[in-house]
Amino acid sequence: MEKRGFKDTELFLLHEIVIALDQIARVRILEPEGMTYPEFLVLMAAREFSAPTQEEVSGYLNMSASLVSQRVSSLVRKGFILQETIPENKRKVKLSLTENGKEKLEKIYTAMAYCSDGLFDSLGPGRSVFRDTLARLGDGLKAELGADCSGDNTGGKKGENNVI
């Protein structure tokens, strides 16, 4: 396999695309709604799981517990999330969305869908192929989670080629 610089990889290109999409979401949608990107992620995670604990949200988002706690406090002040102490373990707190939180998240999701439609419509008939390719890539990434990316392409096992 030909050696190339990181900036020449598909991974770097995807990284740049994700950064640009995050900036678009932040500037065009989240900031006008009075929400930060980390707050949006916590709100989204609280919706996706059934009454998750802050620890579960932290693990899911790969955010520190203190950052999640700060974002939760802000979302509670804004009236988007409720905290409920677990009776069996008073140190753990379950999170749930308020009606305002559900409405705000739906408004953001609708705006993001509208914004992405305009962006991805530029792909024309190739849009469905692109979406299918992204879905396959996502499935492949889930399968590779935890794989060895040290560069020896053996995944820690001699004689096997585990190139992503």
Task: Give a summary of the structure in a few sentences.
With 164 residues, the protein is mainly α. It has helices at residues 10-30, 37-48, 54-61, 65-77, 99-121, 127-144; strands spanning 81-86, 89-97. The chain has a two-stranded antiparallel ribbon.
Helix content: 55-70%
| Quaternary structure classification | single chain
CATH class division of the largest domain:
Mainly Alpha
Average pLDDT works out at: 86
How large is the count of helical segments? 6
Estimate nothing, just give the exact number of structural domains. Answer: 2
Q: Architecture of the largest domain, CATH level 2?
A: Orthogonal Bundle
Specify the overall morphology.
globular
**The named CATH superfamily of the largest domain:** Winged helix-like DNA-binding domain superfamily/Winged helix DNA-binding domain
The CATH topology of the largest domain, please? Arc Repressor Mutant, subunit A
N- to C-terminal separation?
12 Å
* Cα Rg: 20 Å
Strand count: 2
H-E string:
HHHHEEHH
- Contiguous low-pLDDT stretches (5 residues minimum) are 153-164
Beta percentage is 5-15%
Described by strand count, sense and barrel closure, the largest sheet is: 2 strands, antiparallel
Strand order of the largest sheet: 1-2
Map the helices and strands.
Elements: H1 10-30, H2 37-48, H3 54-61, H4 65-77, E1 81-86, E2 89-97, H5 99-121, H6 127-144
Antiparallel strand pairs: 1-2
What keyword list fits this structure?
164 residues, mainly alpha, Arc Repressor Mutant, subunit A, 2 strands, globular, disordered C terminus
